[in-house]
Amino acid sequence: VAKVPLSLALQGTRILIVEDESILAMDLADRLKHEGCDVIGPAAREAKALDLVAQDRPDAVVLDLNLDGRLPIDLAKTLVARQIPFVIVTGYGKRQFDAPALQQAPRLQKPINMPELVRALSDVIRAAD
Amino acid sequence: MTESKRTGRTGRRPRRQNREGHTTESQTNAAETSDPHTPPICAIGASAGGVRALQDFFSAIDDDLGLSYVVVIHLAPDHPSQLDAILAGRTKMPVEQAEHTLELRPNRVYVIAPDRELAIEGDNLAARHVTEPRSRRAPIDGFFHSVAAAQRDGLAVVLSGSGSDGALGIRAIKEAGGVIFVQDPNEAEYPMMPQSAIATGVADFVEPVATLVQRIAEVVRSKRGMDGLNEDDAELGLSKIISLLQARTGHDFSHYKRTTVMRRVTRRMQVTRRDSIGNYINYLRSTPEEARELLADLLISVTSFFRDKEAYEALARKAIQPIFSRFDENEENNSVRVWVVGCATGEEAYSIAMLLLEEAAHRSFHVPIQIFASDLDEKALLIAREGRYPKAVAADVSEERLRRFFVQEGDHYRIRKEVRDLILFASHSVLKDPPFIRIDLVSCRNLLIYLDRELQQRLCTVLHYALKPDGYLFLGSAESVDTSSDLFRIIDRGARLYVAMPTVERVAPVFPPFTFEHRRAHPEHAPQRMDSVAALARIHASALERQSPPSALVDADYRLRHVSATAGRFIRPSEGAISTEVWQLVRPQLRLDLKLALQRAFEHKESTLTLPITMEIDGERRRILEYVTLTEADKGAAPYALVLFLDAGTAGPPEEVSAVTEQAGQADEKRRLVQELIMAQERLNANQKQYEEVLQELRASNEELQSINEEYRSTSEELETSKEELQSINEELKTVNAELKSELENVSAAHNDLQNLMSATEIGTLFLDRELRIKLFTPPVASHFNITQADLGRVITDFTHRLRYNGLENDAKKVLESLAPKEAEVRTLDDHWLTMQIRPYRTVENLIDGVVLTFADVTELKRTEESLAVELNAMGRLQELSTKVAESVELEPALMLVLDTIMELLGADLGYIQLYDSDNGKLRIATQRGFAESFLDHFAVVDASDALDASASGRALATRRQVLIEDIEKGPSFRAGLEWAAPAGFRALQATPLIVRDGKVVGVLSTHFRTPRRFSAHDLRLLAICARQASDSIDAYLLQESLRKSETRLRQVLDTETVGVLFLSEDGTIINANKALLQMTGYSRAEIDAHELTWRKLTPPEWIALSEEQFKKLEVSGLIGPYEKEYLRKDGSRCWFLFVGRKLDDGTIAEYCIDISDRKRAEQERELLASELSHRVKNTLAVVEALASQTSGKTVQQFRDKFAGRLRALAQAHTLLVDADWSNVDLKMLLQQALSAYHTDNTKRIALDGVPIALNPKQALGLRMVIHELATNAVKYGALTNTKGRVRLSWQIEQTGDQQRQVRLHWEERGGPVVKAPEQTGFGDRMIKTACEYDLGGEARLDFLPEGLVCEIVFPIA
Prior knowledge:
- The complex is a heterodimer.
- Chain A has a 5-stranded parallel sheet, sandwiched between helices.
- By secondary structure, chain A is of the alpha/beta class.
- Chain A has helices at 22-34, 46-55, 73-81, 100-103, 114-128, and strands at residues 14-18, 38-43, 60-64, 86-90, 107-109.
- By secondary structure, chain B is of the alpha+beta class.
- In chain B, 45% of the residues lie in helices and 22% in strands.
- Chain B has 41 helices and 49 strands.
- In chain B, strand 14 (406-409) and strand 15 form a beta hairpin.
- In chain B, helix 5 packs parallel to helix 6, helix 9 crosses helix 12 (288-299) and helix 29 (944-950) crosses helix 30 (952-959).
- The longest helix of chain B is centred in the middle third of the chain and has 93 residues, at 668-760.
- Chain A binds chain B through residues 1, 20-28, 30-31, 42, 44, 66, 68, 90-93, 95-96, 109-112, and chain B through 1167-1168, 1170-1172, 1174-1179, 1181-1187, 1189-1190, 1258, 1262, 1265, 1326-1327, 1330-1331, 1333-1335.
């Protein structure tokens, strides 16, 4: 693991990780923390993610599209409604899951390319301000 | 001269006349005669018999007369004429046929060409195509008129011919100064034309051709002699001639225009062949007749019916209508009175009469009409009274008028008697004789122009006097009443129509001092009088020689006729109208004595010297005596009284009388005498007054008597006319007699013709009278009836005949009763056919006088008719056949019809039609008539190659030729024929190959006959037609069959269940579709047929754009697709279709589609699967990456061992799940597999204890990783580091409150080295906790007890 963060853009931002794969969620949390993020979660279930969003509003969300075989469409709609930006991280191709709530968000492919994720998160946070 | 009109040349104005009059004349004379470039024309007209006359004429005529001869004859318009060649052989002069316009040269002959009319145009002879039929009828008149109109003095020659062509023309030529020559009718082959010319009275010479040419030569020479005429001589001569003429005829031409007079005189000179004026004057003196001839020439005039049609129309509308309109029928003796002045030959008078009659016909009441027509020319009047005009007048008179007012008499038209009766033609001079009075309309056309101004004025006064107030005056086109504009008012300038203006007093015109009766009371012995103005002057002059005092000459009517120069002092006309009566003119004091003296002079032939009368003259009282004596100039001439006014010196004052008396001694006696004298004088004065009143009355009576006298005179003329009419009726009767005679000749000729016709005709004709007695018959009748010429007059029914007909008597009687002709066809005993017609016999008087029977042999006709009927029947049958065959759908019924028809037409007994199948070479009987079963069994289907020798039909098939066998036993025979003819029962047959359009033989038509049969051309033609019919049927059938097959194929193609077919119109409406499409889309046939569906309706919105793009492509390439799109079913569901399509020739679009929904679904599933796979792979890779990232090691070897262990654990978990089909995995199995690697040497060191629990895949994966971490930790640091340590693994299910269950798993290590809690949590710990939380949904607790690690994991299960 690199000692130096990739960017200063995410310093102090509060990021909610929604990922049902435990090892992945753990690793992603480590990496975002390394980037200076204040990681919320990670949440493996949609219900929990919704709770966390309600409890303390994150600056951005990293969202996996398959939570134990289910599409977290309600979460996505809530995020859109509450104007919380999010980045989708998924193994699915572009054409799957093209519901309107999901169309605006940047979509990154697994395995995660960290600089890409950092850039996407900082972009959506900046856009949301 | 005369008031006769000369209107020969329309529009010709009188020459301008200068004061002297004659200068102009000589100029014009010179112009007319001395132009050397215009040779005189000799116009020759001839017709039937004219060629001979022309040959004689040109053989005899001198060829150096300097004339241009123009020959006009009647030629057929479409035949070339040889006349020029004929005449060229007779004269040395060049002869030309005038086909086009030629210049006229002297000593040349011009002959009219066919279909031309000739005219003079300037110096040229113009030839034009005949324009109107009229000119074709009268080419001679046309040319003569043109010569006259061109003012060419010329000669006109009329030769042999029938008809009256030329008669009108010569008058025009003569009027223009030409000389007229006519062939003697006695010599002419056809005398009619010369006679017509002579009848006009204008012919100068009537001679045989031989002398005619001499006369022509003489006339031409005398004409030449005149060319050098001295002008002064001419003028002098003319004056002499005029006075001579006046002396002889009483007509004074001195006031007429010189030109005209000179032209006529010149003409007379030519005719009399005098070459100088002097010669002519001598001739005129010595020959009394010449004066009359000259007068007649001067009076010659030309007129025609309705000359100036517009003027006549105006006359009818503006004068005649008003005259009738104001006519008062209640007035007694009222009539419409018209006076035609200068009526010449009467055309004008008759024209006006026609207008009057036409107008009268429009009126409801009867209007008596009286027309006076006057002229001086007695000859012209004769023609006028006769009212006969050449046929050519038809050109001037409308058809209707011709029918109504004329009767045709031979070559002439004659005015109907009722019209002639209206007109009183009278010899009368308007200038000299008292006028007719109370006239409504005076027509005086083309007279004024010949008079000088003074005479015009006088004439106007006379006409005004004659007219009623508001009466009309009708003048010629070039005339006016400008000289007397106070008398007349114009009402139509174009028509020269005037109306008389009323004047305060009607003034009787002063008649000119003509004393001589110009009318010839008895033309035969009229004395030649010498009285004239000149004579009067002479008498007066001689009287003056004896008596020098002022004087006057008075005639027997007491009219003052002449006064001396000094007599003016005694003339003082009284108030009122001017009269010529002497006592109206002399001073009042002189009147009484003068009257008495004159009476004495005329009645007693005594001279009188009156007592002196005192009167004031030139302011002086003078005593005047009158001396009256009778003078008689010549023996028998009218007496005149000479009045001398003698001046007896001045008289004393009036008182002188009494003074003298007183001087005489105042004797009482004297006083008494004076007294008496005064009384006597007073009485005398009273008497005188009374006398004058009586005289006034007498004068009135006298005037009245004069008018009555005039009317009597007219009546006498009328009587004379009647007498002439009687004479002409006599003439007519003679003519009728002659006609009857010629008719008799015609009848006898007709009889001859009839005789010849009767013997020549082949039609039997039989004339029967009312009792059916034979009147006449033609020879062929004798062959039907047994009659001979001897049987004429016997009743026909008495005779036998050779007809199969017995109704002759009845039929003939019926025809006589009904008068309706009867026609019948009758057969003779020898089988001939006759057409018999029975008609009533009509005489010329339209009476029925029997019957006429005609018999015409029509046997041939009948036979032809029969064969035609057969033919017609055949045609009918064929026509019927053709219709029926066309209607027939099936082949065999059609062939049956053909067979039946031909059998019927040929009278065949048996027959069949075979069809040939070229595929198997077999002939099959398709239809047949009359064959027995056994025959058919054998022949139903035969091999064609076999049949070649075996049968006629086989032969016909092979040779493609018709086979005719007239008799089996004689003709070419075949095996089958020999074998089967007898059993089948035929002797003759024919076989006709049936050949279709492309030349293939498709069958054979055979017919059979029980008896030998010859085939006529007609039979063969019928056969050909029927064979054609059969071939056509077969051809059509085959064609239809192949069409049907092809259609079936196509329909099957269309009906494929899996391919939808739809047809679109150009606007995208679905107009048709197959069943498959209906099934695919769920729509019904009815919805398609209603044309309510369009491709747009069936296409979901997102596919419209693509479809439109495809349809655009269609426009360019004609093709659509293939392309895929979704379609909407009727129920709204979608399905995937693959489309291809094309545009058809008629513009519709055909689209084919296949339902590809299944394929599409499979594709989607595959896509889903691929994406799931991608998700799994990528997720797994991410996990692997995270594993790698979380794994740490002091050395690479260490790291690799750790990472490989974790990766293996992950892989084993997957293996387990795949083995379990990615469904639930048993907990114990999972633990055994995870821990099996550690069992190898420590089998008993790891103890598992628990109930079976099903884990879902995620739980299984998570738990597997947790166990891996626990196990590797135990091997590395815990109980499994040595050989004694043990691990105990147990689990159980716990029931939580709300029906949920959870698993409690207990990991407990014992026997290993002493455990120290690690200083920092490593990946293993985090991994265990995170996985428990995430993957198991539970939690883990780790207790690092010194005796060994204890881990407790709790998680829920279903």
